[in-house]
Each structure stands twice: as C-alpha cells, then as structure tokens.
Amino acid sequence: MTTRDLVLISLFSAIIIALGLLPPITLGIIPVPITAQSLGVMLAGVVLGAKRGTLAVLLTILIAAMGLPVLSGGRGGLSIFTTPTTGYLIGWIAAAFVTGTLSERFVKAGQPALTQGIGFFLASVAGGVVVLYAFGITYLAFATGIGFSKAFIGSMAFIPGDLIKAVLAALAGRAVMAGYPLLPQRT
Length: 187
What we know:
By secondary structure, the protein is mainly α. The chain has a single domain (3-179), classed as Arp2/3 complex 21 kDa subunit ARPC3, CATH 1.10.1760. The chain has helices at 3-19, 37-48, 50-65, 86-106, 113-144, 148-155, 159-179. Helix 2 (37-48) runs antiparallel to helix 3 and helix 4 (86-106) packs antiparallel against helix 5 (113-144). The longest helix is centred in the C-terminal third of the chain and has 32 residues, at 113-144.
C-alpha cells in the first residue's frame, strides 16, 4: 500500500465522518434514522474501489469504536455495537466492498460518460442499498424482536432517499473518473 492509498483512505474516512455531522432524521416507524453517512460509504466504493473503500469504512468504524463521536447524532464508543442499528454499521463494510468491486468490474476509463454513470449507479444500488439493507434489516429484526417482515416493510421508507444517494454517488464517481481517476482498473 502506498502513501497515496493511505491518504485516500483517510480522506474518505473523513468524508464519511463529515457526512455524520448532518443531523439524522428519525421516521418514528423504525428505530433507524436517515443519515447521510451511507452516501459516504457509496462514495468510498465508487471512487476508491473495493480494497481502499472498505479500508476507509473500517477506519471510520474503528475511530467510532475508540470513542470519538463520529457517527451521525454524535455517537461513538463500543456502545455503537449494541444498538438496533449495528447491522447497518457492519453492513457498511460489505456495502463498500461490493460497491467497489462492482465499480471496478463495470466502469472502465474509456467508456462513454453515460455508461460510466450507469455502472456507478448500479454498483451503488447493489452495494449501498441491497447489501446494506440485507445486513441492517436482518440484524434489526433479530435485535428488536419485531420480525423480519416488519423490519423489511419499515425499512422501505428509506429506499427513495437511498436511491437519491446512489445517484449522487454515481455523479461524483463519474466526475472523479473524468478528472482524476482513482478507481483501480481490472483487466
């Protein structure tokens, strides 16, 4: 790993943390707030790829676990692993990895802009929505005892916002790819 890789990992961890400064929005029907940090997870995957994006998320979680209030709502410390939202937090790791892996496979430097944008969007939806929800909903259902179907239905209220986040991540990924590509290219 190069110094550049370490700087990019740290930078994207800082972006995820900065997005946590935006206040969470609670819906009341489910104990999971709407936060902007999942956008940072998607961004890490589409811009940095699987390895560095996942490491950026792991660094963020490590910083939070050490007690710094870097998660949305000013949360931090080991207690973050004892809440109904823990599945989403753990899901960030898999979400960044899947988003990055799919971005590396679907998006190439010589592709037209629209093709790159669609590739980034699909990678963001697959990793940042489908994979993230699989972890989050499953853990939420068991941790709260509300059952999988109620947790699933309650989580559907987040889909429109997460699709908007996926569009933003795709646009940002495309802009970075056009100006200063950081995404590892697989042959």
